[in-house]
């Protein structure tokens, strides 16, 4: 199964000197990569290292600027995904390429060639589901399904075409630990059946669990092909990031003091068509601690954030209390005046106005404070404030006071978090603080959160990244379908227990409403 | 023929152009493109078909000219919103203004000309049935055509592979492109179909409904067709129901005016348009249950290659 080359002596696929240029940016720089039949090959790298660009080239979505692709030793030009599929390449996208309003069977049929009818899709769906343990109901609409089920659709869609090479782009980023383990078993089985797998990830543990060979990308270049089981996690991380990544210092131990946030029996109807209702949420965060909220995306995190920040109002004032004052019916600005600060998940367009300069963006959350006076903007004060944030949070800007959209994701995230922290809020609520951010920026942001709590503020972190929560949180709860589990000290949680709560299999049902 | 029968017959005639135009726009919108130029394409269809029919003394050539004129206008729109990824709302409004103006220019020499009514399709025996006979079995070809078109569009969207592709593209063009579906080509064809339907609806107006041409004769029917698509929740069957409701509103207000209810005639003329607004309002209230708009509706698509 782990042969070095196919019987014909060729690699299954070989990329030679692949480059992709976007204006001044070299997303891929002369990349060489070879995949053997039946191998699970990892493609490792930070966000922005060029992994997604490379696999899109291999799948025919993007055209390379230069370079050559050999399929079983033959040079091929892959002009479109249809041609890629004809060769035997299947791909499972990071952001699923599914159609929410269509059914499972329709989603599969639309990607297959003409000779597939909906009826054959249905019957073959049953066969594949049984063979690989991928249970799916053909007539359910996709928007009713969980992330794990959606991913199964993508995988089944590929498998129906008998692929020789299956590409998975960050497949576990939306899965619970149990769903991820289920996926690994499926992949092992596929590999044993002779299908090659190109597995893209930035999570070392799963790469070590699955792969014997890993190609590491950094800033668009291959920096090495290694056996991930033979190297330490630290060594591999250093290769990926380019320098040693430090760990977050805990500083002074966090001692919870006065209560800063109390949520009492908060219930709220879903906001949109496919939204999630909040059901009887109870939560307390005290000064000097970090409270983590874990959960799989779409289980009510954004609704909870909107309720806490005041973007959506509760029907009773005492549903939410900040620093002892009931403010459930008070909007965002009123809550800020009580000493709270908020960082929403979406940084561009929600936390910051894309075409406004950083100095103008400080006004979004500092309006009442030092940057405006009787309705007029104090331009110089705003510029000084933006400069101070840029300096103390190591925001790398392409020019002085640029538009927010010109910053990379990590730098903009440092800016919007810095903008709130620099006000020294008594309570900070942040949604997905390091989503899609490189390791260096993530470390800086987590450190800032830990330091803020050490200085006596209460911090609530909503995150899908379990490793992050285990690193920074003092107490943690899990949200599942709008219900919050019991809030327990972090050392009383195990990853397995969190995973079970994420799936809604709670052993502490009775304790769910206790605080 | 009783008055009641006559009213029913005129309702059918008033509803048919609405239905044809709405079906075309429905397919365009299901592919993810919002074309607000229906009114303009319809006006062009009405003017060109009437001009051709009078010039060549042929209804068939007139209808073909109407369809061609609508398609040509749609092709212009497609070029702008697909080729140059221009804003669809702005381009659609511009198309309406352009269409109304051009139609006035083309139609000007034909103001005052008249065409004879076209013969209805008389189905023997059945058409002699009381009441329903003439209503169901003695209509012109367009009426039967529009019903067949409704069925064809429904089958196309829900039962064929190409229809599934079109719906997928309208739902999420990014994913569709990632799967290798031809986003721009499908959308262009859908826009052309919308234009052809609007042109045909215009031809029906000037050749069958009024049988003369006057500037502004489309009188907002393109906008009603657009509202119908929303009212129908992007489903062909509901477009048929909606078209007949609006057609009935148009005809009944005329009879109400004739009956001298003591309500100002201007207020009665506004009834179909008020009904449009009311329908949209009711629909947005019960939106939770209806299927929503196609996910990518109105968004420009630029493939990253």
**C-alpha Rg of chain B (nearest Å):** 19 Å
Mean pLDDT of chain A: 85
Major β-sheet annotation of chain B: none
Largest sheet of chain A: 7 strands, mixed
Distance between the termini of chain B: 65 Å
Percentage of residues assigned to helices of chain A: 25-40%
| Measured distance between first and last alpha carbons of chain A | 52 Å
* The CATH architecture of chain B: Orthogonal Bundle
Low-confidence stretches of chain B: none
| Average of pLDDT of chain B | 88
> What is the succession of H and E elements of chain B?
HHHHHHHHHHHHH
InterPro entries (chain A): AAA+_ATPase (IPR003593), ABC_carbohydrate_import_ATPase (IPR050107), ABC_transporter-like_ATP-bd (IPR003439), ABC_transporter-like_CS (IPR017871), P-loop_NTPase (IPR027417)
Domain ABC transporter (chain A): 13-244, 261-506
Family (chain A): Belongs to the ABC transporter superfamily.
Pfam families (chain A): ABC_tran
What are its keywords?
heterodimer; A: 515 residues; alpha/beta; Rossmann fold; seven-stranded mixed sheet; disordered N terminus; disordered C terminus; B: 305 residues; mainly alpha; ABC transporter involved in vitamin B12 uptake, BtuC; 13 helices; globular
What's the structural blueprint in terms of helices and strands?
The complex is a heterodimer of chains A (515) and B (305).
Chain A: E1 13-22, E2 25-35, E3 40-44, H1 51-58, E4 66-71, E5 74-76, H2 81-87, E6 89-92, H3 104-109, H4 118-132, H5 147-159, E7 165-169, H6 177-192, E8 196-201, H7 204-210, E9 213-218, E10 221-226, H8 233-241, E11 259-268, E12 278-286, E13 290-294, H9 301-309, E14 320-322, E15 325-326, H10 332-337, E16 340-343, H11 358-366, E17 372-373, E18 376-377, H12 379-392, H13 409-421, E19 427-431, H14 439-454, E20 458-462, H15 466-472, E21 475-480, E22 483-484, E23 488-489, H16 495-502
Parallel strand pairs in A: 3-8, 3-9, 6-7, 7-8, 13-20, 13-21, 16-19, 19-20
Antiparallel strand pairs in A: 1-2, 1-4, 4-5, 9-10, 11-12, 11-14, 14-15, 17-18, 21-22, 21-23
Helix pairs in contact in A: 11-12, 12-13, 13-14
Chain B: H1 3-30, H2 38-56, H3 59-83, H4 88-107, H5 132-137, H6 141-159, H7 161-171, H8 173-178, H9 183-209, H10 221-231, H11 236-258, H12 265-269, H13 271-285
Helix pairs in contact in B: 1-6, 1-9, 1-10, 1-11, 2-3, 2-4, 2-9, 2-10, 3-4, 3-9, 6-7, 6-11, 10-11, 10-13, 11-13
GO molecular function, one term (chain A): ATP binding
Protein name (chain A): Nucleoside ABC transporter ATP-binding protein
Family (chain A): Belongs to the ABC transporter superfamily.
